[in-house]
Each structure stands twice: as structure tokens, then as C-alpha cells.
Amino acid sequence: MAAFDTTRTTYGSHGLTGRIGGLFATLGGMFAAWNDARVTRNALSGLTDRELEDIGLVRGDIDAVATSRARF
């Protein structure tokens, strides 16, 4: 019978190789989040004040929405 060990906190490479891989994964995630925020910011900045009002935003909310810091 096969068993899957769920008590380990990490799987895969250990040591330096695992840390380097983790670093690249973290950097890739940071880049993806930055790019998503950039695209969202550009899209919302292209809307008129009336269009922003229609979706319940003002121009000052764009940065908070793009970085997911909005509390609506």
C-alpha cells in the first residue's frame, strides 16, 4: 500500500539548489504581481471620470485597486 507523507513542509530539492529555485519562483511571482498591477492601473487610467464613477471609483482609488489595497 502506498502512503503520501503530509508531515514534511517541503518537497523536492533541498539545500542550495532548492533555495535558488525558491528565489526564482519568488521573483517570478513578484514580477507577475507587478505586471498585473501595471495592466490594471493602465486600464483604469484610460477610463473617463464618468466611467470610473459608474463602477464606484474615483481617480484617486486607482492605485489602491491596482495593488489590491482597496477596502470597498
List the defining traits of the structure above.
single chain, 72 residues, mainly alpha, 3 helices, 58% helix, 0% strand
List the helices and strands and how they pair.
Blueprint lengths: L14 H31 L3 H6 L7 H5 L6
What does the model show?
The structure is a single chain. This protein is mostly helical. It has a domain at 31-72. Helix content is 58%, strand content 0%. The chain is built from 3 helices and no strands. The longest helix is centred in the middle third of the chain and has 31 residues, at 15-45. It is elongated, with a radius of gyration of 20 Å. The termini are far apart. 0% of the residues are buried. The mean pLDDT is 86.
Summarize model confidence as the mean pLDDT: 86
Q: C-alpha Rg, in Å?
A: 20 Å
Quote the beta fraction: under 5%
Tell me the series of helices and strands, N- to C-terminal.
Answer: HHH
Distance between the termini: 51 Å
Total DSSP helices? 3
Rough outline: elongated
Largest sheet: none
Helicity, as a percent range = 55-70%
Q: Could you name the ranges where pLDDT drops below 50 across 5 or more consecutive residues? A: none
The helix-and-strand class reads: mainly alpha
Total count of strands: 0
Pfam family, one: YjiS-like
InterPro entries: YjiS-like (IPR009506)
